[in-house]
Amino acid sequence: MYVLQLSCIQIAIALLLFTQAKSTTEERFAHTNGMITSCIASERFALLTFRSGLSDHGNLLSSWKGDDCCRWKGIYCSNRTGHVVRLDIRGTDCRSGDGPWQVLAGNISSSLLDLQHLHYIDPSCNNFNKIQIPEFMGSLHKLRYLNLSRSNFIGRIPPQLGNLSNLRYLNLETLSYNIYSTDITWLSRLTSIEHLDMTGVNLSTAVHWLPAVNMLLTLKVLRLSFCLLGSSPDSLQLTNLTSLETLDISDNDFHKRSTPNWFWDLSGLKYLDISFNGFYGPFPDEIGNMTSMLELDLSVNNLVGMIPSNMKNLCNLEVAIIAVARSIKE
Predict the structure, then answer these.
(1) pLDDT per residue over 92-122, tens digit each?
(2) Which of 18, 36, 83, 95 is most enclosed, with most CB atoms within 10 A?
């Protein structure tokens, strides 16, 4: 019995020593409402290094002081491990390109690589001084959400983003075609992607973009508006995207004949916008098979002839814009 008691004491001492050793590498945990918040010293240093490369005109990061970075605005830590898992420093107003919506300016430091547990990054609606999207972002392998929209990036999209195989949400929306890609085959490696927004990205010289997009089997939302896709191949087959619910390829000036083998057989589509594209030819009968459709915009094209009678099958349709400034026969 005495031996058993001694063993218990030894175990207790060992646990205490382990706890003390661990505290030398991690900050002490604070408890709030039964939840654990913490700040790991190396991650706090990485965040401060990141901040040092920025100009904070709107005082967005004014709370970034003190030891506990988990209490800083825009920083979210795991309640279980204390690691920083989310960085949300988006600007104050993304609703338009007018007004003082740029808040942060400067450069994005590679110190973010020391935050290897990040699964969410959103620096959207800021002004990163016309720098390129950093290649190192492709090394943050745990990322599931990345929003780089409207942040004044320019230049080529780094293909290293294709290394983010866990990514589910990617938003690269830009204004005035500031960023571009000549080869987006890297998209095919985003095997978990569900939401892809490349609105305004110059894809006029992108090769093999259709096969790359068509391999994104988990994709639910695809936005390729204003991408200068007018020189794309005659066939726009997206037949593998059986999970797709939203498709926006508006404002691309295709000036091509509308053919049945494009996207009309994607019966799961709920939102389709192909407006301002110069499509011509008859309304495809296959449109009546899109029975999940909620919103449909075919405006400012040159579709002619009778609207298919089977459009009455679209019982869930809430909004339908068939033509603007063009006449059709009904």
Answers:
(1) 767 555 555 558 999 999 999 999 999 999 9
(2) 83
CA angle, 110 then 112 then 117, to 5°:
145
Report CA 48 to chain centroid distance, whole Å.
25
Beta carbons of 89 and 126 less than 8 angstroms apart = yes
Token digits for 317?
């349709």
**Considering the entire predicted model, what is its pTM?**
0.85
Cβ 201 vs Cβ 228: under 8 Å: no
Task: Determine how many CB atoms are found less than 10 A away from the CB of residue 145.
Answer: 18
Between 141 and 240, name the one with better pLDDT.
Answer: 141
d(CA 239, CA 219): 12
Report the amino acid identity of residue 132: Q
- Identity (one letter) of the amino acid at 315? C
Listing DSSP states for 243-302 in one string gives T--EEE--S-----B--TTSSTT-TT-SEEE--SS--EEEPPGGGGG-TT-SEEE--SSE
pLDDT for 23 equals 36
User: pLDDT tens for residues 284-329?
Assistant: 888 888 999 999 999 999 888 888 899 999 999 999 998 644 444 4
**162 contact partners, CB below 8 Å, separation of at least 6:** 138, 185, 186, 187, 188, 189, 190
Checking DSSP bridges between strand 54-56 and strand 104-106, what pairing results, if any? antiparallel
